[in-house]
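Sequence and fold:
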Amino acid sequence: MRQIFLYAISTCLIGLFWPGPAAAAPIATAVEVDGSAQVSFGGNRSRLSTGARIEEGSVIETADTGLVQLTFDDGTNMVVGPRSRLEITSVLIGGGNRASRFAVNAVAGGFRFLSGGSDPDVYDITTPTATLGIRGTAFDIAVAGRDTALALFTGEVEMCARNQRCFIVRGPCAVARTAGQNRIRGVTGRDAAELIAGAFPLIGRQRPLRPEFRVEDGSCNRYRVLEDEASVTPQRAPERNDPDPEPPSSSAGRSGASASAVSPETGGSTSATTGTGGAGASAVMP
């Protein structure tokens, strides 16, 4: 009996004084939460509210109307759009509020990323079909099943497929997407217009966002111009009896913006005239 009593006392003392596993340190704040959003951590799931601190290892999920604006302690900002899931895999922030590692997994839905004060090399952003390396960057991601699409606003992104074949995305509102698991391709023209309208919930719809989460997305309008022009039914010009015009000079050119792509295999470049009058966007192609 005496042994049982001593065992019980020792167990209580160990529980009181033995340090358990350290709790994960918070590394971000949900500065704005609209609609329905939840956070999971350590097996517990709860409703996410404005002002909540977020720990490394947390998973954030939003419903149809959910919108979460996150500010990490190193100054990085992220938006988790409606019907989205973000896994904060590993974020280590040390002295000076700079991260030595910043790894997140955008599993599904729409996201915005604006890099903070940490070295670009520490960022590791993944989706089910792509890995993104950044260089002082703001961009949106859209993830649907095996398809990942990216729209760039500033900086550069190295977008790599699962086979490590990579595509450098640069230029205002340059758009790229995965083509299966082993290929990345640039998207332009009406294809880009349709992708932006259907896959990116934040482009052109930034009113719900705080100022620090907004970007200059006016350069994306050049794709809408192409879409609008394509939807206009050409009208037949009335017949006129004017004399035949003089043949045009051979030196006359056609104005328009140029988008260039450089191939690392050939080292050469090609250019295509868009005819929209907007700025060109370039990407290094695999």
